[in-house]
Amino acid sequence: MRASATGSNKQIPKLSNDRKAKVSCGIWNCLGVMISTELSHAMLHTQLPKLGYDFQLHYQGIKRVGDGWNDHLEKLIKYKGANDGSYPPRSDKTMSEWVKTQQERYRKGMLKKDRLDRLKNAGFSFIAKNEQAIENCRRWNDRLKEFIEYRSINDGNKPHFNCSVLRKWASSQRKHYHQRTLDQDREKKLKDAGFNFL
Description:
Layout lengths: L1 E2 L5 E2 L6 H19 L5 H7 L7 H28 L10 H15 L5 H9 L7 H25 L10 H15 L5 H9 L6
Antiparallel strand pairs: 1-2
Helix pairs in contact: 1-3
């Protein structure tokens, strides 16, 4: 209980540890901005506890904030593993926003090196979905050009084993054709190029 200036008693609200950590982080950030030029770090560590500041909660709060990024990365890795490498749908707003934020930070050069390395190791795509579609289309057209050049040099034969990238691409086109999942525009381009779907 604390007496106010008017003499009435007001109870200080009780906070959960999670809320205390957030408040504690906020106080630390404000103090850091206001008095960083006047007090040394050592002085803050000796003076603030006298005012009731809890450094343990502060560091727990920082850990929780940092762990949020790790949690999102782990969730993304699990999702991609269970869904054939695809990204979470837009309906999962939290994850799709997190993915978008990482892509934006990468483009702006604002992604920390350790996070960048971890995202690369996880096979993260730094290209947004619409940009990814454009890139996929460009790559497909490049492969088609390679295929046409290969056929003109090799008397219309299918790519040999030593052309593994082109051979896999051709195999993928046949698979999509037989599963009826090949885009009509791509199918027409392949037929015009004399592609053998058998």
